[in-house]
Amino acid sequence: MIIIYIIFGLMITAMIMAVIETRILRVTHYEIIADCPSDQDEKTVRIAIVSDLHCTRFGKKNKRLIDKIAGQKADFLIVAGDVINSRPGDLRYAVEFFDGLRNEGVEAYYFFGNHEQKLVLYGENELQIFENEMKSHVRIVNNDTVEVKGTVLKGLLIPLRMYRDSLSNIAGYFDATGLAGSFCDDGKYHILVAHDPTFVDYYRDINADLTIGGHLHGGIIRLPFVGGLISPRHRLFPGKTKGLYDEGNGKLLVTSGVGWHALPFRFLNDPQIVILEIKMRR
Fold first, then answer.
1. pLDDT tens digits, residue range 56-100?
2. What confidence tens digit (pLDDT) does each residue in 11-43 have?
3. What letter would DSSP give residue 88?
4. Does domain 2-281 have CATH number 2.60.40.730?
5. Cα–Cα distance between 49 and 56 in angstroms, integer?
6. Would you report the helix, strand and coil content of the chain in percent, each value rounded to 5?
7. Which phi and psi angles does 37 have, rounded to 5°?
8. What is the DSSP string of 94-119?
């Protein structure tokens, strides 16, 4: 009986810790050394990355999160999808977040995830209404390219059906996009932002130096020596859920995100703001 009480106590303690952990903001630092063309000066580009906010607030009007991001003094911020929880009323949250960043002098670039796209489930015009309104608050990069601080950012808007069914005609979709080889060898550093890193095998042909994704929430529960336990598709041990990985001729960076949806629960998996320094060296 004592053993049962101990086990039960440990379970309750773990659950309390998991809820408390959703309120902790941790900054994770990564560094990449990249080749610098001989005709350009050596430099370092400092990028902040957040993903999967899911309408989570850290303080009034998200002040604690916004201040934490602004305090990193990054050259710019990549917001890699799922700022909202796919409800039309979430527009207020997104406006509040991006206006707060702008007021703190943070230059942000917004790439949609699956929860932005789920707005279509409330009406075929809801996604367009959301996007049109957000354009006056932040630079949106969906299936588009923008150059920032000597880096080239390309956003890949993954069709909503591919989040629901990994057996959809994925290969055919990537062939149809014409993205293969779309990053040219122009001496710049090329970053592809695609919310779901699950399809990284298909991203390789885009020839990005770095691919950034989120979506997997770090596996929600992280186990020592194992990593993430479960994916949003409820698949066990989904693999590359958090960290910087070598991937083909480039790298893959997966952030565990800062928020939660459905249940406020994380274990050994603090909400994460990523700071990436890309050092251009000869």
1. 999 899 999 999 999 999 999 999 999 999 999 999 999 999 999
2. 554 455 545 555 678 999 999 998 877 667 788
3. G
4. no
5. 16
6. 30, 25, 40
7. -55, 145
8. HHHHHHHHHHTT--EEE---HHHHGG
